[in-house]
Fold:
Amino acid sequence: MHNGGVAYANTETNIVIDRSGMTNNSATNGGVSYIESNGNIVINRSEITSNKATENGGVSYIESNGNIVINQSEITSNKATENGGVSYIMSSGDIVIDQSDMTSNGANLGGVVYAENSGNIAIIGSHMVQNSAQSGGVVYSGNCGNITITNSSMVNNTAKRGGVAYIHEIGNIVIDRSNMTSNTANSRGGVAYIQQNGSIVIDQSNMTSNTAEQNGGVAYANTETNIVIDRSGMTNNSATNGGVSYIESNGNIVINRSEITSNKATENGGVSYIESNGNIVINQSEITSNKATENGGVSYIMSSGDIVIDQSDMTSNGANRGGVSYIDTNGDIVIDRSYMIGNNATNRGGVSYIDTNGDIVIDRSYMIGNNATNRGGVACSNSDGDIVINRSNMTNNTAGNVRAKCVFPC
Structure:
C-alpha cells in the first residue's frame, strides 16, 4: 500500500469530502486522503467509518503546510497503527473539528488527531466518545502547538498518558465550557497531560469521574507548567496522588471560584499535589468531602512551596495528616478569610499540617468542629515552625492528645 486510500495530492491541491460516505478504505498513510504539502483537507457533513492506515492518519494525512477541517460529520472506528487515528499533520498545519462526533477511533499517539510540530488543534461543539491511544486518547501535540476544547463533551476516552489530551512540550491545553466524564489514564493525567513548558487551563467546565492509575486524576504536568481551574466543577475524580491535579516540579496550581467535591487520592493530595517548587492557591471556592488515604485531604506539597487558601469554604475533607492541607518541608500554609468546618485527620492536623520548616498562619477565619485523632485539631507544626492565629474564631475543635489540642505545635 502507498498513500491516500481514496485521494492523493502532491502539492498546491485541496481535497474536499462533502455529504459523502467513506468506509473500509486503507493506505500506508492517509486511509482516505493524503496531501504532501500546501493543501487543505475538508470533510463536511459526511460519515467516515472503519478506515485504516498501517502507519499514520487513519482518515487524513498532511505532510506539511496544510490544514484539516472536519465539520458536522460522524467519524467512527477509524484506526492508525502508528499515530492519528483520524487525522495526522507532520508540521505547520492546524486541525479543526467542529460540531462532529468521534467514536471508537484509535492509534498509538492521538486516538483522533495528531499534530507533530507547530500546529494547533481546536475542537468545538463536538462529542468524543471511547477513543483510545497510548498518549492522548483524543488529541496529541508533539511540540509548539496548543489544544483548545470548547463547548464539547469527552466521555470514556482512554490512554496511558492523557486520557483526552497530551502535549509533549511547549504548548497550552485549554478546556472551556466543556464536560469531561469517565476518561481514564492508565498512568498519568486522566484528562490532560503536559510533559513540559505550558499550561493547563480549565474554565467554566465540569470534570466528573475521571481517573489516573498513578497521578493527576484530571490534569498532570511534569515540569515548567501551571494548572489553572477557574469557575469549574470537579467531582469524583481520583488518582494515586493528586485526585484532580498533579505537578512534578516548577509549576503552580490555582483553583479559583470553583466547586471541588468528593475527589480522592489513594496516597497524597485528594485534590492537588506538587512534588517540589510550586505553590497551590485556592480562592473563593467551595471544597467539600475530598479525601486522601495518607496526607493532605485537599492539598499536598512535598517540598519548597506554599499553600494559600483565601475566601474559601473547606468542609468535611479528610486525611491521615492534614485534613485540608499538608506540606512536608520548606513551605508555609496561609488561611485567610475562610471557613474550615468538620475537617478531619486520623492522625495530626485536622485542617493543616507541616512536618518541617514552615509556618501556619490563620487570619480572619473560622475553624469549627475540626478534629484530629492524635494532635492538632486545627493545626499541627511538627518542628521548626510557628502557628499564628490572628482575628479568627475557633469553636468545637478537638484532638485526642490535649498537648496539641486545636492549635499548639506537636
Summary: Residues 184 and 190 are 5 Å apart (CA to CA). Residues 7-404 form one domain.
